[in-house]
Amino acid sequence: MAIQHHFSHALSVMAEHGLDEVIAFTFDGTGYGTDGSIWGGEFLHATRTGFTRLGSFAPFLLPGGEAAVLHPSRIVFALLHEQVMGRIPGIEEDQEEMLRAMIARGLNCPVTSSLGRIFDAAAAILGLVDNVSYEGEGPIRLEGKALQAHQRGVIRLATTAAAALLPFRPAAGDERLFLIDSRPLLARLLNDRASSSVSELALLFHEGIALASAEAAARLRKATGMSRIALCGGVFQNLLLRELLIPLLHNDGFEVFLNHAAPPGDGGLAVGQAWFEER
Prior knowledge:
By secondary structure, this protein is an alpha/beta fold. It has a 7-stranded mixed beta sheet, with helices on both faces. The longest helix is centred in the last third of the chain and has 27 residues.
């Protein structure tokens, strides 16, 4: 029996560590959710028999679907065209009208909550990727730049600042589900490109995601009573994100579990599937 993509990610970590219940961050690029949208920035409560989605990064549109994945400036436009003055980098003037019409009509604009696509958008804003030539190109380049600043000890984003850059809000129609809005953080990158280095802004982005995720963990624990947390999905191949996030979780009393024997991305899904079927 096929099971939901992001639940399989959580189950793969649970299988590796012999866990029957966890809270889980399932961060990746693509995978359909139970509501028909594309998930990828999810906060779950998972057992061996099922899961509850308790939060996610706020959904946004992918204008042109796969075209937005290959040209992530389209993702930036979808997220920020109503918030910033002036042109979005990478979007020509003759494209703007077309994209506005697509978004207004919902024409070929699938909905996603993917953190992987938010990483793509950040990389596009900072001029690190234009036409994607391989999976994860933008996030890899973004991490590389962020590491340059991290090694120099340039930025330490305050928790209060992160709360403003990645605000939480309840989902419309379901106040039990929280959403994390990525737009203020991406707008900050766009606004500060002229005054800050790419490496500093790339690190700011990573630190913001780590701090917001730590806050999400605290909310999940309050809702479930669970302090065991699984970090899974392809985004956690990002070593800097793990280096920033895991100490925050440990300091707040969480037990953190990751894939070691199985790949953190889609290569580990079969492990989760088998763990579910053997219950």
